[in-house]
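Suppose a colleague, Dr. K., hands you the sequence of a protein chain of 337 amino acids and asks what its three-dimensional shape might be. Before reaching for any lab equipment, you can write down a predicted structure in token form. Begin with the sequence itself:
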Amino acid sequence: MNTADLDTVRKLLSTSKNIVIIPHKNPDGDAIGSTLALHHYLSNKGHQSTVITPNEYPQFLKWIPGENTIKKYSTDTEKCISLLDQADLIFTLDFNHFSRTGDMEALLEKSTAQFIMIDHHQQPDTYAAVTYSDTGMSSTCQMVYHFIEKLKDTDQINQAIATCLYVGIMTDTGSFRFRSTTSTTHQVIADLIDRGADNTMIHEKIYDTNTYSQLQLRGVALKNLKILSDYKTAYITLSQQELDDHNFKKGDTEGLVNIGLSLEGIKFAVIFIENKGEGIIKISFRSKGDFSVNNFSRSHFEGGGHHNAAGGKSELSLQQTVDKFISILPSYQKELQ
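The predicted structure, expressed as tokens, is then:
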């Protein structure tokens, strides 16, 4: 943020406001962590703050400080509409286009509230009075830390805020192994630990609590793993029937796409997950090195994200989607090699 943006933020926050904070649809650890951290910070500063998620999120995130205050648009629509109507200021976190909020898109487009965007994805839209965008940042949670830092309020970061921010940075960096993890990221993490974030407990809550069904589903994913060696590509498919057979709950497929990317010699990994309720195939893309899955997803599967991590969708059948994907790969053979 430049000086003018900071002045605008300070002015907007100079008096008590009704504030709504919104992450993207199907929020992950970074989305929930960043919105709750900002909620705690704004509440402590005297604002009326509420986090509204477009829909449900994984069970493994339901211990984070303040999680019980979140309103879900998909199940408490009238209350959420009322909160949005009363909002003076709306923060949008971890996304940069209203379409990423699903059914909330039209409401946000017609809102008369001021918007502040904090996000690290590519190609941000222009709806916000203040846009804090940094595609090189590890996570939106790290950006929220720097947002508070720029406002000279790091003394306001208590244990609850530190915990929320640690969750998002840890999950969006793949436990600090992705290239977006910088020395500054580690400095931020060190400060969060000093301020009360229990790193061991957080890791156990996120990664080390599995049900039998989740592990069985992982076995199905491993069985369905296919390798296209000519393109240094691996992909996994999961049908709706396979999900149903293993008592699938939101979040159970988190991280499965990385199985393919962990294989020696693989540069591009994909998982295709059938969602008959929404009538789509949900797709996650991951890559190593200079192959941009953001560009690939935007070009072919109505998606986008980061250079090495992106999402997309298809309205074809599961098999037709896989066939389409395979048919596209020859055009990228040189890049993948």
